[in-house]
Each structure stands twice: as structure tokens, then as C-alpha cells.
From TrEMBL:
Descriptive protein name: Phosphoribosylformylglycinamidine synthase subunit PurQ
The protein's Enzyme Commission number: 6.3.5.3, 3.5.1.2
Any one of the GO BP annotations: 'de novo' IMP biosynthetic process
The species this protein was found in: Salicibibacter halophilus
Catalytic activity: L-glutamine + H2O = L-glutamate + NH4(+); N(2)-formyl-N(1)-(5-phospho-beta-D-ribosyl)glycinamide + L-glutamine + ATP + H2O = 2-formamido-N(1)-(5-O-phospho-beta-D-ribosyl)acetamidine + L-glutamate + ADP + phosphate + H(+)
InterPro entries in UniProt: Class_I_gatase-like (IPR029062), PRibForGlyAmidine_synth_PurQ (IPR010075)
GO cellular component, one term: cytoplasm
Function according to Swiss-Prot or TrEMBL: Part of the phosphoribosylformylglycinamidine synthase complex involved in the purines biosynthetic pathway. Catalyzes the ATP-dependent conversion of formylglycinamide ribonucleotide (FGAR) and glutamine to yield formylglycinamidine ribonucleotide (FGAM) and glutamate. The FGAM synthase complex is composed of three subunits. PurQ produces an ammonia molecule by converting glutamine to glutamate. PurL transfers the ammonia molecule to FGAR to form FGAM in an ATP-dependent manner.
UniProt keywords, alphabetically: ATP-binding, Cytoplasm, Glutamine amidotransferase, Hydrolase, Ligase, Nucleotide-binding, Purine biosynthesis
């Protein structure tokens, strides 16, 4: 598997994502790809890390969404390649219309940085099949704009089609339905606010994020590698 970690000006979780992919999957190639690149076609999976792209000016993710690389990210997402956006990456996917809804400021208007309980609502995606449905994970959050908002019709559609992949076990930031992560209709684009790449080692608090990366890798292997 060739994986691309996109680096925007202001990304700050790019190296954590790189570490998660290089040290916990068997991906042959993991590249840090600058936002100025115009094609990511050569990659099998694309990762948008967290951070403060363009200083969160205007709105989180609103400027990064127009980075040169995003045209190709959108094309590859529409082809069905796995695209994961974590935190600011999720915000960029929302701004790029690859996922529905928007992020508002956290309900208490405070930046929050702590480890929270996250429920696995759908373990039937290429990102989550190494988990069990109903499992409760410990994963760090670190955001000021994590209050996910969508209209009622969108919420019903997300729910009816099992596109809510993660929820917070309690109301941490005001998100509609405690949503912590959703997919697009095809299931190959996942946006999530909690940081699985910061939950890779028990020494650092949790290793509950590992299986997200191993799921993506195994999904690629199962669909691309012929064994005799
Ligand atoms: N950790 C991050 O990706 C931060 C996300 C975003 N810039 C916010 O504060 O909401």
C-alpha cells in the first residue's frame, strides 16, 4: 500500500500520522505530501492530518480546502480510495463537500484537549473492521471547532445508512447526536474528530487507535494482494 499524508501549512499531526502508518502497518510507502502537489493518483490511501491549516483563519479548513492538492484528493475520493481526515482533516473534508455538515465552535467556546470515551457505531467499514460494533475506545481529542452540526434530514440519512461510525460516549462539545466521526455515502471517506494517531501506544495513554490504521492496511491487502 502506498499512503499519502498531506501536509498543509499549519498541519501539526502529520508526523504522528506518519508514525502510525510506518510503525503499525506494513505499508510499503508512506510519503509526506506537500499541499502544493497536484496529483495523489499514485497513492492507494490518503490521510489528512490534524492541525491549524492556514491558522484556522476564516473557518477551520476553509482555506486548506482550496490547496492545489485537494482537486486530486477529491478525484481519488470519488474513485473510491480510502480517505481519512482527522480533526482538522475532518474539517477540510467538510469544507470540500466530501462529507456533509459543518463544524461550529465547541459549545463551551473552549479549546479542549483530553482523552475521551468513543463508541464504535459501525465496524463494517474499511477503517473500522478490526473493531467490534459497540466497543468503547479511549482516544484523545484536541479541538476548538468540534461541534458537528447538520440539518435533521442529513442526520436521519447518516443514521439510516450507518454512516455514523463513531460517537462520543457523552456530550463533549455539543455535536449533533454526539457524532465523532462519519463517512460519505460510499463509505470510503471517513472524517473523525478524535485522534487515533495519538492513541498508538499504551505508554502514551492508549493503543485504541491502532486498529483504524491496521483496518485500512488490511482492507488494501485483502483487495489488492493475490495469495496462492
Ligand atoms: N487538532 C486539530 O486538528 C485542531 C483542529 C482545529 N484547528 C480546531 O481547533 O478545531
Amino acid at each position: 500500500m502506498k499512503a499519502a499524508v498531506i501536509v498543509f501549512p499549519g498541519s501539526n499531526c502529520d508526523m504522528d500520522m506518519y508514525h502510525a502508518l510506518t510503525d503499525f502497518t506494513d505499508a510499503e510507502i508512506v510519503d509526506l505530501v506537500p499541499h502544493t502537489t497536484d496529483s495523489v493518483e499514485a497513492y492507494d490511501a490518503i490521510f489528512l492530518p490534524g492541525g491549524f491549516s492556514y491558522g484556522d483563519y476564516l473557518r477551520s479548513g476553509a482555506i486548506a480546502r482550496f490547496s492545489p492538492v485537494m482537486k486530486s484528493v477529491i478525484t481519488e475520493a470519488k474513485k473510491g480510495k480510502p480517505v481519512l481526515g482527522v480533526c482538522n482533516g475532518f474539517q477540510i473534508l467538510l469544507e470540500a463537500d466530501l462529507l456533509p455538515g459543518a463544524m461550529k465552535r465547541n459549545k463551551h467556546l473552549k479549546y479542549m484537549c483530553r482523552t475521551v470515551d468513543v463508541n464504535v457505531e459501525n465496524a463494517d467499514t474499511c477503517f473500522t473492521f478490526a473493531y467490534e460494533r459497540g466497543e468503547r475506545l479511549r482516544i484523545p481529542i484536541a479541538h476548538g471547532d468540534g461541534n458537528y452540526e447538520c440539518d435533521e434530514r442529513t442526520y436521519k440519512t447518516l443514521k439510516a445508512n450507518n454512516r455514523i461510525v463513531f460517537t462520543y460516549a457523552s456530550d463533549v462539545n455539543g455535536s449533533t447526536g454526539n457524532i465523532a466521526g462519519i463517512t460519505n455515502e460510499a463509505g470510503n471517506v471517513l472524517g473523525m474528530m478524535p485522534h487515533p494517531e495519538r492513541a498508538m501506544e499504551n505508554l502514551l495513554g492508549s493503543e485504541d487507535g491502532r486498529r483504524l490504521f491496521t483496518s485500512v492496511y488490511r482492507h488494501w491487502r485483502d483487495t489488492h494482494v493475490v495469495t496462492t
